[in-house]
Amino acid sequence: MEKSMSTRILVIDDDLAITELMSILLKTYGFEVFTTNISVEGVKLVEEKRPSVVLLDLMMPDMDGWQVCKAVRKFSKVPILIHSAINDPGMVASVLDAGADGFLVKPVPSSVIVAHIRKMVRQTGALDTSVLKNNGTQPLRSQL
Fold it and tell me: pLDDT of 65-116, one tens digit each?
């Protein structure tokens, strides 16, 4: 089945192992995935690739997640899902105020990440119809 429009996910994380793992995982769910380990490049990729959702780490060396959110919000309303090891309510509130749309604390089960991505894309109306067909009809685990 040809896809008329794919659901594009941009993963921005300074940990190469995380970006590789997320790329493999998200591709198994039918998403088109772009990754970068450099925050500044991530901001440029949001503009160039126009992803459906950005999956973003907070603690990065060149530009942290707060700065990335603020930079992206200057030109885009793309949903931003924070994926971070930080589990502090004040930090969560701070990054949501900076423009993030959701926050998940690492480690997160793959089915939960995918469910959050699908929810964000449904809310913006950008979900690929081929991904929607199985949404709700099969347990997420069976799609792996």
Answer: 999 999 999 999 999 999 999 999 999 999 999 999 999 999 999 999 999 9
- What pTM value is reported for the model? 0.83
> CA 75, 78, 83, 88: dihedral to nearest 10 degrees?
70
CB atoms under 10 Å from CB of 113, counted, come to 21
Give the position of tokens 């200057």. 74
Structure-derived torsion over alpha carbons of residues 109, 114, 115, 118, reported in degrees to the nearest 10: 170
* Domain map (residue ranges) of the chain: 8-134
Enumerate residues 6+ apart whose C-beta is below 8 A from 64.
Answer: 39, 58
SS3 state at 71: helix
Give the Cα separation of 102 and 100 in Å (integer). 6
- Tell me how far apart the terminal alpha carbons of the chain are, to the nearest angstrom: 19
CATH of domain 8-134: 3.40.50.2300
DSSP state of 38: -
